Amino acid sequence: MQVKVKWIDGVSFVGESETGHAVVLDGAPENGGRNIGMRPMEMLLIGMGSCTAFDVVTILKKARQPIVDCVAEISAERADTIPKVFTKIHVHFVVTGEGLNESQVERAVKLSAEKYCSASIMLQKACEITHDFAIQAPSFE
Fold first, then answer.
1. What digits encode the pLDDT tens for the residues 127-137?
2. Pairing mode, if any, of strands 86-96 and 128-136?
3. What is the pTM of this model?
């Protein structure tokens, strides 16, 4: 896998993937940024969250669970001193579907955390990562 990160100006960059997608990253204004893109550490959490959510959705679909939505809400704590690495990450899944089997959702979250999600398994080597989930019925508003 290869990516390219190109400096725009100040502390703004464009990241490009080998698959042809691009994203703008920027620093906080107090660090010389213009607030035109995500912070790099936000991007890291989003990457991990999307990786684990991908697994959960895929595992539940393979188990023929009636999933209609999955949201990974991620909170993280960082060290107070530089380098301000993540010290704790918590992933809360909100899985939506009528008649979802709780043990299947629990299994999907556990399999992602322990076997499939490359991003979270890699980050677990550096900080504590916890997971939980809630199941909700679809709303028909």
1. 999 999 999 99
2. parallel
3. 0.91
